[in-house]
Amino acid sequence: MTDLSHLPPFWSVPRALALRPALPLVTALALWLYAVRHTDVSHLDDYGLVTALHPGFWAGLAVLTAGFWFTVRDPRRPGGWSAAYVLGLLVMERATQAVLYPTPLYAWAWKHDGVVDHLLTAGGLQNADQIGDMAVYDQWPGFFAAQAALVRLLGVDSAAMYMAWWPLASSLMLLLPLLLIYRTFTEDRRLIWTAVWLFHVANWVGQDYFSPQSVAFALHLGVLAVVLRRYGRSGEGGGRRGQAVWTALVTLLVTAIVISHQLTPGMLIVSLLALWLLRRHRDWVPVATTVVIFLAWCLTAALPFLSAALPDMVRAVGDVGGNVETGYGATPTGTGAVVTSWAARLLSGAVLLLAVAGVWRQPVLRYRAMPLLVITAAPLPMFVASSYGSEMVFRVLMFMLPGVAFFGAAALLPKVRTLAATEAAAEAAAEARRKGEARTRRGFGLRSGFGVRVWGPLPVLLAGTLAFVPSYSGKDRISYFPPQEVALVQRLFDEAPEGSLVVAANRNYPLAHASYGSVDHYWFLEDDRRHVDEIVRDPARTLATDMAGVEPPARAYFLFTQGQSANSEMNGQLTGAQLDRIREAVAASPRFRLVAETGAGVVYELRQTEDDGAGDGGAGDDRASAGDGGAEGAGR
To answer: How far apart are CA 32 and CA 246, in angstroms?
Structure first.
């Protein structure tokens, strides 16, 4: 018989203590699973997912945050536990919607799915003469071409099969570049992981959805990580051959960014230029490479769009007030929309104040992490450059967030260690162990710091983590399209002949850009306000006139869905009562006939008669293509 007495026992007190951090993590995930199984999203109110969530979700998020805080503060715990908690946070933050909702969220994600589908169908890029203003996506095709290849590789029907999980996937893509950037300035794992946690908690802007921006932002952080680590003053380049390798990598990443998104290259250039001008990295190659690739693309493939948009771009330069203001149809309206909007503002404001406090409390970081402070402030001049479809304030906040989270985390911690202090601290700890002077530690926290220094920051971190939910999911009434709405719109585009026109209140419905190569659109709430008032006064006659220019066999359809209604009500366009009067007037008019109706919407067709065809058809045709440009062409 084999003697196993020399082996350590399978279960012991030290082993139990080592696994202690698993208890809050497992408890939190169990509460999350229970909550999502008992959450009903069939009737969302103006608070979105906030009021729909089972209380177990909130309890789980609180347990997860407390477990993370005490785990990350304990120097005995391996960094793997902190990473596990961050992954748990991403699951609870970014996977909840994918689990709860039977269809993908967000009209812009559906639009990008339509672009991918069109690229697969057309088999190549097309110009404005073929697909109008939507050709702007063919001028920045990197993301869409990659997704078309992925759809073929996976053998699925469309990107809609997986795009509900894209927020989780894109958030996971950010982990590596964030860790590389933070480890450039510190080996203090408390600061590193708290900064990663705070970044994801404060990243409510919503650019993690199925979009070019989600990938371009991850690549942007990747370029900054390479530059800070390999071109910085303390970087180890490995000689000329090593620098050539890193320059090749930077070139590859920058090229992928430039061919995929309009704004991100500009943000990257201002960040690299700021580092170079302030002599925070020794080599001019990264910034020169980025500028050359960006200009080469703008002067070739992107030239048609930029030529048309140049006058508006020039007018926007210097107009800071106009660049940060929100226009008609972008003002939160109603208690739920206002509350969730203020939750997002307070969350961002609190994190920014924490960052200021961190810079003040940790003077060593003001010097050692100065390059990160520089690239945090670098996006601010973009307010002077453009409004970016009234979204510049959100994009600037997002590009500032990696640095803001780092310095904000420093405010929550006692004195942090930079790379220069790490070796000295390790030597001191080794000497203390040799002398037997190390104190006994119990539970999650250090006994010497179990008071205010440990408990004080926890409510701040907990409040921020909980505030993420209304900031990120508070407008899910707008973003969620139930299966009946998806089926209704799908039926419409399946039946619409080539050259048809679809008229709707706004573009907030699924598949809004399906078949955009053959079907025109007109969203009347994006028209001049005076014309919107005409539609409100006399809906059936005015809409019939707008739709009258369609020649058979093409048809003109009026589409009204609950997603359009939610968007209009919560963003200060038309009230629910006004939209109902428009729908009822169309339903009662002999000019229209009912095509399809579900609990989530209705489709009417304009009857093709000589009287209808004699109306103001030209105006209707002109409006059909309006709205595909502007913020959409410039943005997502």
So the answer is: 42
Report the pLDDT value the prediction gives residue 153, as an integer from 0 to 100.
92
- Report long-range pairs for 582-591 (Cβ below 8 Å, ≥24 apart): 582/505, 582/535, 582/536, 582/539, 582/543, 585/538, 585/539, 585/540, 586/539, 586/540, 586/543, 586/558, 586/560, 588/540, 589/540, 589/541, 589/544, 591/540, 591/541, 591/544
What distance in Å separates the CA atoms of residue 206 and residue 209, rounded to the nearest whole number? 7
Distance CA 414, CA 262 (A): 41
**Mean pLDDT (10-residue bins), the chain, 636 residues:** 52 57 93 96 92 96 95 79 95 95 94 90 72 78 93 91 95 96 91 96 91 95 92 56 83 95 91 84 83 92 76 58 52 84 92 93 85 91 67 87 95 72 49 46 38 72 95 93 95 92 93 86 90 92 91 93 93 90 94 93 85 40 38 38
In which residue are the tokens 């696994």 written? 19
Tokens of 454: 């440990």
pLDDT at 39: 95
Q: H or E element: which one contains 561?
A: strand 556-561
80: Cα separation from own chain's centroid: 26
Residue 147 tokens, joined: 């997704």
How far is residue 609 from each of residues 142, 168, 365, 485, 495, measured CA to CA in Å?
Answer: 45, 51, 74, 29, 20
Give the residue among 517, 636, 509, 632 at the shortest CA–CA distance from 119. 517
Rounded distance between C-alpha atoms, residue 496 and residue 605, angstroms: 10
DSSP state of 45: B
62 Cβ neighbours under 8 A, 6+ residues apart: 462, 466
Task: Provide the whole-model pTM.
Answer: 0.85
SS3 43: coil
Own/partner pairs, 80-87, CB within 8 angstroms, 24+ separation? 81/21, 81/22, 81/25, 82/189, 82/193, 83/193, 84/21, 84/25, 85/21, 85/25, 85/193, 85/197, 86/175, 86/193, 86/196, 86/197, 86/200
